[in-house]
Amino acid sequence: MTALSPPLLDVDALSVTYTSERGVVRAVNQLGFELAAGETLGIVGESGSGKTQTALALMGLLPATAAVTGRAGFDGRNLLALAQAELNMLRGQALSMIFQDPMTALNPHLTVGRQMARVLERHQRLSRRAALAEAAVMLDRVRVPEARARLRQYPHEMSGGMRQRIMIATALLCRPRLLIADEPTTALDVTVQAQILTLMRELQAELGTAILLITHDMGVVAANCDRVLVMRNGEMREQGRVDEVFYRPADDYTRDLLAAVPRLDAQRPQRLAVIGAAEVAPSGREDYQPTDDVLLQVNDLEVQFAAGRAGWFGPRRYLRAVDGVSFDLHRGETLGIVGESGCGKSTLARAVLQLLDGYSGQVLLLGHDLSELDRARLTRTRRDLQVIFQDPLASLNPRMTVGDIISEPLLTFQPELSRAARLERVQALLGKVGLQPEHVNRYPHEFSGGQCQRIGIARALISGPELIICDEPVSALDVSVQAQVINLLMDLQQEMGLTLMFIAHDLAVVKHISHRVLVMYLGRVAEIAPRDALYREPRHPYTRALISAVPIPDPQLERNRDRTLLGGDVPSPLDPPSGCAFRTRCPLAAARCAAERPALRQVGDSLVACHFAESSRP
Amino acid sequence: MTGATDTLAAAPRGRSLWDDAFDSLRRNRAAMIAVALMLTVVVLVLFGPLLSPYDLYSTDWDRISQPPSVSTAHWFGTDDVGRDLFVRTLYGGRISLLVGLAATAVSLLIGIAWGATAGYAGGRIDQLMMRVVDVLYAMPFMFFVILLMVFFGRNIFLIFVAVGAINWLDMARIVRGQTLSLKKREFIEAARAGGVSPVNIVRRHIVPNLLGVVVVYVTLTIPQVILVESFLSFLGLGVQEPMTSWGALVNDGAQVMETAPWALMFPATFLAVTLFCFNFIGDGLRDALDPRDRSAGG
Amino acid sequence: MLTFALRRLLSAIPTLLVLLALAFALIRVAPGGPFDSEKQLPPEIEARLNAAYYLDEPLWQQFGRYLGGVLRGDLGPSFQYREYTVAELIGTGFPVSLRLGGLAILLALAVGVAVGTVAALRQNTRTDHVAMAVAMTGISIPNFVLAPLLVLLFAVTLRWLPAGGLGDGGPEHLVLPVIALALPQIAYIARLTRGSMIEVLRSDYIRTARAQGLSSREIIFGHALKPALVPIVSYLGPAAAGILTGSVVIEQIFGVPGLGRYFVQGALNRDYTLVMGVVVFYGVLIILFNFLVDLAYRWLDPRVQL
């Protein structure tokens, strides 16, 4: 990687333009960068920044409607000017790409072996048998257990992490010199993400592949890249070595972007920086004092779903989405609920909201058991129990105006209000959530994701609820917009004395906004602790692994970090391990863990469900 | 108090999805041409007979099977009993279009009611209702229509009902499928969590989102229905004389195809053009209402 | 697999029963009887005829008797064609219709899928527009217009092919009827394929295949074709039952002695047993084809659970 050898990839004035009857859109504008052999360059930006378009342009995968100009020198040839046949020779062989969602990126109709073998048959002219053998070797390399058996399976029969490994294996089959990875871990759980990124680093060291890593996650960049390029609206804002850019950003946008990311190692609660804002308000809220006023009480909640039978006359099988969860929620606090996919947090939310067909256990709001209320009383109680969903656009009826959407709860809970009175409240609330009064007649699809989420928040607030359940409300938003929405929620909580149940998979976000945090695993509670205690002194081995896996946007910290990687995958909820559900992946697992399911007990400031919670970090 | 309503009045109206869809349709040249053609046909069919000196029934024994001529004002020629084909073609158009619309309306009403109920109710009721649909699908429907025609005579209202009854199954399936997928959308969950009653959910949230699919399907059903009616005419079971339809005219014309091609050509052209246009418009609507490009930026 | 077949079989039985009951009821409640079209019969003879055909028994008994017959394979005698049983009529008519229909389906699949695929690959070019316009025309012209036109062109004017009948069973007699039968199907399948193929080609996994350097040909045949066929299979299943039981129009115009005309004749003449027989037959075919369609789904898309 000396400065004297020619770069592997030399991009100069790359532009991608789309022309339609709506006008001209420059997805990428005069982008230039270099990539040396064996190096990892991270391209980071928010949605619309053009990073994916750049990758697709380099691979020649853009649709015919895209006009691509510029030069991309690879191996002495201009990638952008190659004929189809020549391009096909390079793709999959010298130049490979992996995509974000392995579920849709792998062909669901072919076995894994077939898909992998095809690449080898095509590029290296191997026979089917030889190709399959090679594929098995590669699968071993990416640590897919039982490689031979996997070759005969279909993608949908495997977990997300496994599928991404297969994608990586397929991309590396011909030892490419350049691997383009487009958000390779965004669709994966954070512990799996850590595994995959580590794997990619190892393979890179072994094979000498250069990696172009496209991501929106600054933490991932800090942990995995040598150099970084920041993009916004199709243009390059800054590029350079990772330390330079992170510690001494020269560009405003880069600086704001770094400041807007909630960090797992942040010390005190503060407002997140907002991109483009004049200055950062120093501190957001007074520290919350826990009260005894219990607003919501959940006792031994269990939710199961029927999952067919094993064979014709076998016993009915059930999927335990929530398997014995209990906690209290105090007035005015924010309880963050965090866990990876399949942990049951969304099901928990729906159970509390009484949106499921049935559950066992109790959900008590202000002392009333919600499942025992009749329809009319339940409807009245809903006034105090509102919700904000994950997908901002999907949670709004596309055929209703914003005004109608926000005022619908008033029709339900306060039908005596006149039209004018309703309008007044809508106007007032629009202002409070940061929208304009003129927006009242517009339709949801005319707004951005962040604005749609504000509409959702306004709808949740309009009847003055006590408790709002937030189900991954910022997961689908860009970092900068995420910061705005989080700030808004925190402000509103302060102003209106709201109680929040905040569900998310992003630990940093949860840490930022919560007072207490509940960690879930496979439908059970692993740990409940006050925020600082959880992050400073996590007691449950799973919590430790989780925290360890989250990349922090600080390159030096990442380099010196001691990582405890969690291996394996989450077990199937159809067939949970006996005793402690985490024991199959736990470094502390012992015989007792298989025999006896650990109960939640007090250890220090936290409630932990682990037999060995007192032991120090391994 | 009035401040709020004033602001409401002043607030600019947003572009609904319908607005976007119409714009998209307007830009589809082929679809626009089809719409123009359709309108021309409709106008002709409604007002054309006024232009002609002849009427639907009168036979002109001096001029049987005459080719089209301007001098005799038999612009489309005459048929084998001397009736003017121009007027008959246009009157036939009225019947065909009427059957198309009425029968489609029948299938629409039954299909939507059935499909939306099954889809929203879910569970057992859904299973039962769709089982009925499955069983009915296994019936040779054409067959039963024929039976009905045989038993109860060739009443035009019966034709509406019978032909409409053939297509409601498809409509029910589509509406049910759409309702099922709507039920899973987050805004329906949001409405339930917001305490909105099931009746209001169906009214405010489900039905408006069904209309797109229904509209597309209606424009694609009308040509099928018209074809079914023409098939009935082929069998001799269509509308009774002196009423006529394009199907009946085409059938008559096909029989004298070699000697009097105009008798086939004019009604067949009208039929084909109408079916063509409906299909094209349906396609255009389907593309225009396709929600694929809808996404809010992050 | 076996459980799947058994389950299907079990659920097919109530379907058939309901079907038969419906048909039975419809026929019986309608005004008029099977012998009305005859010249006026003296009452004793009419009574004896009715007794011979069990028409004087209570309805449910007649139904039961009929069901028993069905299980033995006896569909009863035809009222109209007195010398034949319904089973015989179906037995002679069906093979003819089957041959025509089967060939038509094969032709429609081959040509329709090919045209649709080409149109999808050349989306929005002139080839595409022309192909789809032609396909649209094919759907917009009723086949009782198309068939005579074909006869006019190829048989009368050009004298390349015979105008009708099956003659000695030579292939030239089949060409025109098969084409006439297949044309509207070709048009519909072409449109369906185009839409489906476009969808599939937009998928992420096709993009991955391109990123792996596979050629267009490999991508179409190896990756895109199977999933694109799913909607065509959905359509063809029920449609095949209709096609194979004979198109009334085609059989009439080309003078082919197939099953289609028995359909219509039976209905027109109130030939009870023939009607019931046809309903049974058709129902069985539909159930069979739905079963085949589900098997096809499994083959086309491994995610489908049986």
What is the compact description of this entry?
The complex is a heterotrimer of chains A (618), B (298) and C (306). By secondary structure, chain A is of the alpha/beta class. Chain A contains 22 helices and 22 strands.
Shape type of chain A: globular
- Measured as a percent range, the helix fraction of chain A is 25-40%
Distance, first to last CA of chain C: 7 Å
What profile does the largest beta sheet of chain A have?
A: 8 strands, mixed
Q: How would you describe this structure to a colleague?
A:
Chain A contains 22 helices and 22 strands. With 618 residues, chain A is α/β, with parallel strands linked by helices. In chain A, helix 8 (190-207) links the parallel strand 7 and strand 8. The longest helix of chain A has 18 residues, at 190-207. Residues 278-284 of chain A have low confidence and may be disordered. Chain B is 73% helix and 0% strand. Chain B has eleven helices and no strands. Chain B has helices at 2-10, 17-27, 29-51, 85-121, 123-137, 141-152, 156-183, 186-193, 198-234, 246-255, 261-288. In chain B, helix 8 (186-193) packs across helix 9. Chain C is an all-alpha fold. Chain C has helices at 2-29, 43-52, 59-72, 86-121, 126-140, 143-157, 172-201, 204-211, 216-228, 230-244, 248-254, 260-268, 272-300. The longest helix of chain C is centred in the middle third of the chain and has 36 residues, at 86-121. In chain C, helix 1 (2-29) packs antiparallel against helix 13 (272-300), helix 6 (143-157) crosses helix 7 (172-201) and helix 7 packs across helix 9. Classes of the chains: A alpha/beta (618), B mainly alpha (298), C mainly alpha (306). Chain B binds chain C through residues 30, 134-135, 137-140, 143-144, 146-147, 150-152, 223, 227, 230-231, 234-235, 247, 250-251, 254, 257-258, 264, 268, 271-273, 275-276, 279-280, and chain C through 15-16, 18-19, 22-23, 26-27, 30-32, 129, 136-137, 139-142, 144-145, 148-149, 152, 156, 238, 242, 245, 248-249, 263-264, 267-268, 270, 275, 278-279, 282-283, 286-287.
Write a concise keyword list for the protein shown above:
heterotrimer; A: 618 residues; alpha/beta; eight-stranded mixed β-sheet; six-stranded mixed β-sheet; 22 strands; 34% helix; 24% strand; globular; B: 298 residues; mainly alpha; 11 helices; 73% helix; disordered C terminus
